[in-house]
Write a structure and sequence with these properties.
Number of strands: 8
Strand order of the largest sheet: 4-3-2-1-5
Shape: elongated
Order of helices and strands: HHHHHHHHHHHHHHHHHHHEEEEEEHEEHH
Number of helices: 22
Strand content: 5-15%
Length: 723
């Protein structure tokens, strides 16, 4: 048997090793980390012989040997923990020392900058001649102008085709997608024309090494700036509002177009560096000085950015609503300054992490707004709410997944991780990272699949929300869809989440077979402990299979009655016609009386006097029934018109006649009220009197005298004279 203290000690050592590895992965380069991992995994190809195993078991059976092993294990654990703490401290100290050394080197290079500038000038003069700089600038202007000329020729050649874009309709989503595809093709053509006209002729000739390096770098810089300008025009369309993909007003579009262009130009200049006699530190100082310009552009864009994205007044983001615009701008400014600080300190792992955290949510939000704008409903000029289409959800969620995967790839590249060969490395860190990446991809695919299915179901529910003509096959079909689709959606959600989680755990090396078996055992235990819940679920399944009721129908089950508003997995929600809501478990419903299916027969009773003409009353009621059936307000609600069935009863003071009509369920009440009013009017006009109970007092005297005598006698009986 294992000792509990020994188990705790082993767990503590494993935890210490894991934390130490995490810290090492943060502060050490990736190559060193991989080397460390390989060093900690020695070869295990040699196996012990049976004789050696028997000798080891004999030694382990000795109590003195076991005590010695425990002491040595504790001592080794303490030594490993101390070594881990010391190595982490050394790594941090080494990193801080490298940063201080880098900053000191930069500071020492500042006085030597003029000297390096003249050395670089002399080298350019030595390699290119006395007028080498002028020649280089002229060649640069020539090739840039040649690229611009080829791009102008492309514009002239496609002018008629681009002019037809203004006349293309943009009413439907397919029309807008077609225009977006054509504009994208033109944008690619512009970039290709500039590249072929500028870089193509330059590469066709041989140049001196220094001149080739300088001009090629500057031409690539101009090409990158041109690409940024074309992409900005394609997305923002500052001069053509009808072609704008990202929804915003014209002022905001021009604002961002200018800032993005200048920022791209500055970024290219920061990354451009030619060794013309400058040291590495000198080139870094120039890059950092240009980085300050980029910082100013970014801060200007943050604090002067337009307030709204769209002319229709897009609602601000959740963060902006919660903290305010000033707080958001302050947080963005701090993040931008932190990026510059991390870049100068050469802490690129933190730089890329902050950059991804800042830009990924913004890019995802802009992508969502752009997809909604392009795929908005027909005839709408602004982004509207409502159930999105399946195509919109697939595109938006697909781009979202690609952006997240791209952000992970950027982080891996910035941290020095080789994702392409990660699965080939036989280290615990590589296996863990590979499993996490696979799990993230699985969850992203499940997210796209679930939102696509949810969008399809929501669209169907929105279409079924209008019942259409009552008591028709289409109305019954829509009611059935409103009843079953929400339950089907919930079931699919549970299935997709369960399968995705199990696949993600399996990709991370977790054995899911015991989990599935354990879930089965837990399910059996829960089933025994929750029999009422199981009965409710099973009863609900049979009610739905039998189509006993649907959403929107009026039912009565025992002492509960009302309109069915919705379902859960174990109960139904009924809205009483007076307002209260009943949540009734399926197991308590019992026999269900559905009052909203097919048709209903409504019977009315009318009492007339004995001297009334019954045949005339029958004809009048029949005529009233025909008039109601011809009324546009009630024509679609009456299945069979009102007609008299005959004499139902000969009462003490009235002849009771009965009439009936067949109507759509739930509509008989309003028709009955209208029928009563028409019968009253018709009977009054034709001399048919309604019977009502009367009291007649007969005697020898005149009625008035008799009535007075009766009243006097009543007073005498109720108020006797005083004695």
């Amino acid at each position: 048997m294992y000792d509990s203290k020994r188990i705790v000690g082993i767990a503590g050592r494993v935890t210490a090793i894991f934390l130490g590895a995490v810290v090492f992965a943060t502060v050490l380069p990736s190559g060193a980390f991989a080397a460390t991992q390989k060093a900690t995994n020695p070869s295990t190809s040699e196996e012990a012989s049976p004789k050696q195993i028997q000798e080891l078991m004999t030694l382990l059976g000795d109590p003195k040997v076991r005590n010695w092993l425990e002491k040595e294990s504790k001592a080794q654990a303490a030594a490993e923990q101390a070594a881990t703490e010391e190595s982490v401290s050394q790594a941090l100290d080494g990193r801080l020392a490298a940063i201080r050394e880098h900053l000191a080197a930069l500071a020492g290079t500042v006085p030597d900058l003029p000297n390096q500038f003249w050395q670089g000038r002399e080298r350019v003069t030595a390699d290119l001649g006395e007028n080498g700089r002028t020649k280089a600038l002229l060649l640069l202007a020539f090739f840039v102008g040649l690229g611009a000329a080829v791009e102008w020729l492309f514009r002239k050649a496609t002018q008629r085709a681009r002019g037809r874009l203004d006349s293309l309709p943009l009413e439907t989503a397919s029309d807008r997608l077609r225009v977006v595809a054509l504009r994208f093709a033109f944008a690619v053509g512009l970039v290709a024309a500039f590249a072929l006209g500028s870089i193509g002729p330059f590469l066709a000739r041989d140049w001196p090494p220094l001149l080739r390096q300088m001009l090629f770098g500057l031409l690539v810089a101009f090409l990158v700036v041109r690409i940024a300008n074309v992409v900005s025009h394609f997305l923002l369309a500052p001069d053509h509002e009808r072609f704008r993909i990202v929804p915003m007003d014209t002022v905001a579009a021009r604002f961002w177009h200018r800032r993005l262009g200048w920022f791209a130009f500055g970024w290219v200049l920061v990354g451009f560096g030619v060794a013309v006699g400058y040291t590495v530190e000198a080139r870094q100082l120039v890059a950092y000085a240009l980085g300050l310009v980029l910082l100013a552009i970014a801060l200007d864009a943050v604090w002067r950015r337009p307030a709204a994205f769209h002319e229709g007044g897009e609602a601000p983001s959740t963060v902006t609503r919660r903290f305010g615009r000033g707080a958001v701008n302050t947080a963005l400014s701090i993040g931008i300054v932190a990026l510059l600080v991390w870049w100068v300190a050469r802490a690129m792992a933190g730089f890329w992490l902050i950059l991804v955290i800042m830009t990924l949510p913004l890019v995802i939000r802009i992508t969502r707004r752009a997809v909604e704008n392009v795929l908005r409903p027909s005839g709408s000029t602004q982004v509207e709410g409502g159930a999105p289409s399946v195509m919109e959800v697939c595109i938006e969620r697909g781009i979202r997944a690609l952006l997240i995967i791209g952000a992970i790839a950027v982080l891996a590249w910035g941290w020095g991780m080789d994702l392409a060969h990660l699965h080939e490395q036989d280290t615990w860190f590589a296996r863990l990272a590979d499993g996490l990446l696979t799990a993230i991809v699985i969850l992203l695919v499940a997210d796209v699949l679930w939102h696509a299915i949810k969008a399809a179901i929501d669209r169907k529910l929105a279409e079924a929300g209008d019942p259409g003509l009552a008591n028709t096959e289409e109305a019954r079909k829509r009611a059935r869809m409103r009843t079953l689709l929400p339950i089907f959606r919930n079931i699919l959600f549970v299935v997709i989440i369960s399968v995705a989680v199990l696949m993600a755990l399996a990709s991370m090396g977790v054995q899911i077979a015991p989990l599935v078996a354990g879930a089965g055992v837990v399910g059996i235990a829960v089933g025994f402990g929750a029999q009422t819940f199981a009965r409710d679920v099973i009863a609900g399944m049979f009610y739905l299979i039998d189509d006993a009721f649907r959403v929107g129908e009026y039912i009565q089950a025992g002492r509960y009655k009302g309109t069915v508003e919705g379902f859960s997995i174990r109960s139904v929600r009924l809205r009483h016609h007076r307002g209260p809501v009943f949540t009734v478990p399926f197991n308590l419903l019992g026999a269900v009386e559905n009052m909203s299916r097919d048709w209903v027969i409504d019977k009315i009773a009318i009492g007339v006097t004995y001297d009334s003409d019954l045949e005339k009353a029958r004809k009048l009621i029949k005529q009233i029934g025909l008039e109601l059936q011809q009324d546009p307000e009630f024509a679609s609600l009456i299945i069979e018109p009102l007609k008299m069935q005959g004499v139902d009863e000969l009462g003490d003071y009235a002849v009771t006649i009965r009439a009936k009509m067949m109507t759509v369920p739930g509509e008989q009440f309003v028709i009955r009220r209208k029928a009563y009013a028409m019968i009253k009017k018709a009977f009054d006009e034709n001399g048919i009197k309604f019977a009502f109970p009367t009291v007649q007092v007969a005697g020898e005297t005149e009625p008035a005298t008799t009535t007075a005598a009766v009243a006097q006698r009543g007073l005498e009986l109720t108020q006797p004279a005083a004695a």
